[in-house]
Amino acid sequence: MIYRETGQFKTSYATDQQIFPIRQDRIGVLLLLVAAFVVVPLVAGSYWFNAILIPFLIFALAALGLNILTGYAGQLSLGSAAFMAVGAYAAYNFQVRVEGIPVLVSFVLAGLAAAGVGILFGLPSLRIKGFYLAVATLAAQFFIVWCLTKFPYLSNNSSSGVISVPNIEMLGFTFDTPQSRYLFVLTIVSLLALAAKNMARSTTGRAWMAVRDMDVAAEVIGIPLMRTKLLAFAVSSFYCGVAGALYAFCYLGSVEPDGFSLDMSFKILFMIIVGGVGSVLGSFLGAAFILLLPIFLDVTMPWLAELVHLPFDSATVSHIQLMVFGALIMFFLVVEPHGLARLWQIGKEKLRLWPFPH
Amino acid sequence: MQFFFEVLIGGLLSGIMYSLVALGFVLIFKASGVLNFAQGAMVYFAALSLVGCMEKGAPLWLAFILALVVMTLLGIATERFLLRKLVNQTPISLFMATIGLSFFVEGLAPMLWGNQVRSLDIGLVDEPIAWILDQYNIVVSTFDLFAAGMALLLVGGLALFFQYTRVGRALRAVADDHQAALSIGIPLQHIWALVWGVAGFVALVAGMLWGSRNGVQFALTFTALKALPVLILGGFTSVPGAIVGGLIIGSTEKLAEIYIPPVLQDIFGGNFGGIENWFPYVLALLFLLVRPEGLFGERHIDRV
Amino acid sequence: MKRLKQLIGAAALAAGLCAPMLAQAAPEQFFMLPDYRVGPYGANGQAFYGGFIDYLSYVNMKGGIDGVQNTWEECETEYNNAKGVECYERLKSKAKAFPGPIHTMSTGISYALVDKTAADHLPLAMMGYGLTSAVDGSVFPWAFPLVTTYQMQASAIVKFLKDKNGGSLAGKKIVFLYHDSAYGKEPIVALEAESKLGKFELIEIPVAHPGNEQGAQWQRIRQEKPDYVIMWGWGVMNMTALKTAQKMGYPREQMIGSWWAGSEEDVIPAGDAAKGYMSATWNVSGTAVPLIADIEKTVYGAGKGNLTDKSKIGTILYNRGVSAAVASVEAIRTAQAKFGKGRAMGPDEVRWGLEHLNITDARLKQLGATGLLPEVKTSCDNHEGSGKVKIQQWDGTKWVVLTDWIEGNKALIHPLFHAEAAKYAKEKGITPRDCSKEK
Fold first, then answer.
1. Cβ–Cβ of B105/A70 closer than 8 Å?
2. Among B97, B225, B278, whose Cβ lies nearest the Cβ of A143?
C-alpha cells in the first residue's frame, strides 16, 4: 500500500525517463544519501569507517565496474583486480612524479590508464566468447601483476615493489581522519554510481544489453560490435582503476602487486553474482554481503564454539569459517540465482499490495 | 642446443603433470557442461585422504581404494546437492558455485586431516636415471616416466571409453543435450554419478603424483590454475586435447622462462624472470584468437 | 515457552561468562594476535603463534610480568593484507590502553600497518620480516624490525660463505633463487652491494608464486654450475626447491636458505633430499633449551597448551614464536623498570621499552632462553638491535647449529636503510625525530 504508483502521472519526457520514476524510490534514495553523508559520520566509530564502510564503498565501485562489463555487456572477466592494481600504481606515480598535481586529476588519469589497459586486454573479446574469454582475462590478471613487480620504475624504485602512498590533500585540507576519508570515498562512489545508472539507461547501455543478449543479432541491426565491446571494457576498467586508486590511497595506504591477486578478482565476481548481475543496486548489496560475511563469521564463530563447549582450537574455527563461507555462497546461488537485487525487487512487488492480499 | 633439448624435455614432462589435472576438468565439462573450478581443491582432498589413510597404517593400494571411495562420495554429493539444483542456470552461476565448493573443500580437507605438510612416498624416486644422464646428459627420472605412462594410460583409456562403450556414448549424449538424453531413456543421475566418480579417480591419480612431487599441502590447490591454459589450448571438451595442450603448455612455459627474460633484460635492464605465471595464459589467449575453441574443442555455433 | 527458556538459558550463560571478567579489576597487558592458521602457510603460522601464546601463558602462570597478567585475542588473517588490516582495526580498541607489541608474521600486512600503527600509536614488531627501513627509528618511531632484517641476514650469509672459502669469494658464482614477491626481492639490494664488494658473480633467478614448479630454474642452475645457491623461499617453494635440486643433482650442502626457508615444515616433507641443506636462524631448535622444556612441563602439564599436536614443541618455528614473545615481554619489563613496576604499560611506555631494549646473554641465561635470541640492544636510530644470525644444517633428523653468531656488514647495509627511510619520509611528508635529542 505504501508502494503504490497510482496517482503518479508523468507529464514530460524528462520525468518519464528519470532514474527513479516512482516517488517513494526517490524519497528512499534521498533519505539513504542523507543518512550516508550526514548521519553516519556523526555516529560511527573509527573501526566502522576503516574496516567496513570504506572497503565496502571501494569494492562496491569495483563490483559496479565489473557489473558494467559482465552484467550489462555480457563479457565475462576475471581480471578486475589487475585493473584495480593499474589504477592504484598509476595514481601513485602521477601523485609522486608530477609536482603539485591535484589528487582528483591523478585519480581520473589513473582511471584512464586503467581504461587503456582494459581496451588492450578487451581486444580478444571480439573473437572469443564465454568461458574462453574468462580464462583469457586471467592472462591480463597475471601479466599485469607481473609487470608491476618487474618494472621498478612503476614502484618508484623501491627495493621490494611495495608502494606507500602519501596523504590526500585538496585545497589545503588533508584527508587523514577516518571520517574525511569516508566522505571523500562516498562522494566519488556516489557520483560514479549515478553515472553508471545513467549509462545503463542510455543508448550505450541498451547497446551493451543487446550485445549481451545476442551479439550476432545486435550486429545485424547495426550496433558496432567492436566499439561497443571495447567501450564496455574501457568504462569497466575505468571504474576498477578508480576503485584501485581509492583502495591504495584511502584504505590500506600501502599496496603490493601480489595484494591484487586472483583471489580478489574472484571476490569481486562473487559480489556481482550474489548481488545480482546487471544491476547497480546489486553491486552494492553484493559487496556488503561478501565483505561483511567473513567478519560476521569471525566474530560469532568463536562465541558459538564456546557456547556449545566444543573443543575447537583456533585452526579448526578458521577452517570452519572457510567452509561456512563456501557453503553460504553455494546456498545463495541455489536459492536465489539472480541475486540479492532480485530479492529486493520481489520485496518491492510485495510492498505494492501489502497489507492487502491482492 | 643440448640445453634447449634438456629444457624442452623437462617441460614436456611437467606438461604431462598439468594435463593430469586438466583431465578432471575435461571429464566434468564434457558430461555436464560445468567448468569445475573445485578440481584443484579435489586434487588436494584426494591426496590428503590418501596420505591420511596411509598414516593410519593402510598400505598404498588399500589407501588408494579408500581415497577413491571418499572422492566418489564427494563427487556424488556435489552433483546431488549442488549441481542438480542449479540445472538451468547460466554457466557463470555454475562456475561460481564450483568456486564456492572449492572454498568449502579447502576448509574441509585440512579440518579432517590436519594442515601439516606431509610427504607422500609411492615407492618411486625422483632421481635421474643414470644411463640417460650419462649418454645424453638429460635429467629424466623413473617418476617422470611413471607419470607419463599413467597419463597416457588414462587418456587412452578415457578416449576409448567415450568412443566405443555404451556408457561413453550415453555420457556424450548427456553432454550434448540433457533433455534429449532423458527422452530416450538415459538415466541422468547414474551417468552423472559415474562421471564424478571417474573425475574423482583422475583427481586422485593427479593428487598422488603431484603430492609425491611437491608434498601434500595446501599449495596443491594451485594446480588448477596451471590446468586452465591447458584446457583452453586443448579445448574444454577433448580428452586427447588435454594431453596435447599439456605438452604444449609445459614445454613452451619452460622454454619461455629460460629464453625470454635475458632478451627483456637486454632491452630494459633489471631482472625479468618469473614469467611462468602468465606466459601459458598469454599463449592460450593468442592461440584462441586464431582458433576460438581450442585445438580439439567443439565449434561454437551462434544461432540468431 | 521453549523460546523463553532458551533465552533465559543464554542470558544466564552470558552472565556466567561475563562474571569473571567483571570480578577482575587489575588491568592486563593485551596482545593483539593477527595470526594465520589456514591457507598455504597455515602450518607455519600454527607453530609460530603456538609458541608465542604458550610463552604468554607460561609468564602468566609464573606470576605475570611483575604481577601484570597477559591477555590476548587471535584474529585469522589468512595471510591476506586486507584481512590483516580489518583484524587490526577490530582489535585496535581493546589494545589501545595497554598494548603488547603486535606481531603479524607477514611482510605484506606489516607494510599496510606501518602507517596505521604510527597514526594510532600502537607498537608494531616485525621480527625478521617487514619494512626493513624501519631500522631508522627517527622516521619510524612505532615500527620495530627487531633482532635482524633480510638485508643483514643476506650479508651475514655472504660472510659465512666467505669464511668457508678462506676469507674471499672473489671469482665465485652465487645464485640467488628467490620467491618473486616483496619478501624475495628485499635482499637483492644488499646482495648486489655485497657482490660488488666481494667481487663474486651474483645471478638472480626468481620463482613465480607459489613456486611448486621450478624445473626451468633448476635446469638453468644445473647449466650455470654455481658454487652456492642462496634460497629465499617461503611455503611450498622450499620443499620443491630441495627436491628439484636433488633431481638435478645439485648438492644440498651448497644450498643455504633464509630463516623462513629453514624449518621442519620445509625439510621433513622433502625427505632425504634435504640432508645437508643449511639455513640461517636466530633461534635453535629442540627441547634442550631450558625454557622450552619448562614450558612443556608447566603449560602443557596444566593442560593450557595452545598446540593440539605436541610434536611441534621445539621445532624451529615454535621456538621462534617463543623468542618473539620473550622479546616482547622483555620490552615491557624494560618499560616497567623505567615507568613503574607492577602495573600494565601504556602505548608510549611500551614503545620506549622497545626502543631501549637491552637483552644480554646473562639475562637470556637467567630466563633459560640461551639460544633463542642473540643479544639485542636497540636505540632510536637502530631499531634492529642485533643483526646477528647463526647458520644451521639439517642432518636428516634435526637441525645442527654450525656456527656462532655472525653479524652482517653493518657499515655497508645500515646506510641503505637510512637512505630508504629518508626517501620514505620525503614521500610522506614526515619530519624525522632528532635521535641525538632522545633519551
1. no
2. B278
d(CA C132, CA A205): 49
Burial of A31 (0-12, 13-18, 19+ CB in 10 A): exposed
CB contact under 8 A, A329 and B302: no
Residue B300 lies in a domain: no
Asked if the structure places residue A14 within a domain, the reply is no
List, for chain B, all residue ranges whose pLDDT scores fall below the cut of 50.
none
Q: Check CB contact under 8 Å for A143 and B288.
A: no
Burial (CB < 10 A; 0-12, 13-18, 19+), residue B173, is: middle
Q: Determine the residue among B278, B286, B290, B298 to mutate to test chain A binding: the one whose Cβ has the most chain A Cβ atoms within 10 Å.
A: B278
Place of cell 587471535: C74
Specify the number of domains making up chain A: 1
Answer for the pair B254, B248: CB distance below 8 angstroms, yes or no: no
The verdict on B116 touching A (C-beta cutoff 8 Å) is no
pLDDT one-digit tens code per residue, C327-361: 999 999 999 998 888 888 889 999 999 999 999 99
Looking at chain B, how many residues does it have?
304
C205/B273 Cβ within 8 A = yes
Question: What pLDDT, on a 0 to 100 scale, did the predictor assign at position C277?
Answer: 93
pLDDT at residue C200 tops 80: yes
**Partner residue facing B111 (CB), from A130, A319, A326:** A319
At C4 the pLDDT is 59
The 10 Å CB-count burial string (b at 16+, else e) for B90-107 is eebbbbbbbbbbbbbbbb
Per-residue pLDDT band for C119 (boundaries 50, 70, 90) equals confident
Residue B135 within any structural domain of the chain:
yes
For residues C317 and C297, give the distance between their C-alpha atoms in angstroms, rounded to a whole number: 19
Q: Count Cα atoms within 13 angstroms, Cβ side, for C7.
A: 4
Cβ(B71)–Cβ(B49) under 8 Å? yes
Once rounded to an integer, what is the mean pLDDT over residues C143-152? Answer: 89
In angstroms, what separates the C-alpha of A161 from chain C's closest C-alpha? Answer: 6
| Model pTM score | 0.89
CATH number reported for the structural domain that contains residue A38 in this entry: 1.10.3470
C-alpha cell at A329: 555462497
Asked whether residue A200 is domain-assigned, the answer is yes
ipTM of the complex, rounded to two decimals:
0.87
Q: Which residues of chain A have pLDDT under 70?
A: 1, 309-314
Which of chain A's residues have a Cβ under 8 Å away from the Cβ of C37?
A: 314-315, 318
B161 domain residue, yes or no: yes
Architecture of the domain whose range is C150-281+391-410: 3-Layer(aba) Sandwich (3.40)
CATH number reported for the structural domain that contains residue B252 in this entry: 1.10.3470
**Domain contains B303:** no
Residue type, C19: A
Residues A338, A351: Cα–Cα separation, whole Å: 20
Q: Which of C66, C71, C61 is nearest to C99 (CA)?
A: C71
Record the cell numbers describing residue C163, joined without a space: 669464511
When the candidates are 3.40.640.10, 3.40.30.10, 3.30.450.20, 3.40.50.2300, the CATH number that belongs to C27-148+286-377 is 3.40.50.2300
Looking at mean pLDDT, say which of A342-351, C5-14, C48-57, C208-217 comes out highest.
C48-57
pLDDT tops 50 at residue C22: no
Contact A250, A150 (CB under 8 A): no
pLDDT of residue C20: 44
**CA atoms of C322 and A106, how far apart (whole Å):** 46
Task: Show residues of chain C in contact with A255, CB under 8 Å.
Answer: 81, 112
- Residue B233 corresponds to which cell in the numbers above? 589450448
Number of domains in chain B: 1
Domain extent at residue B246: 2-290
Domain ranges, residue A52: 22-353
Q: Where in chain C is the domain with CATH 3.40.50.2300?
A: 27-148+286-377, 150-281+391-410
CA neighbor of B136 nearest in space, from B235, B4, B273: B4
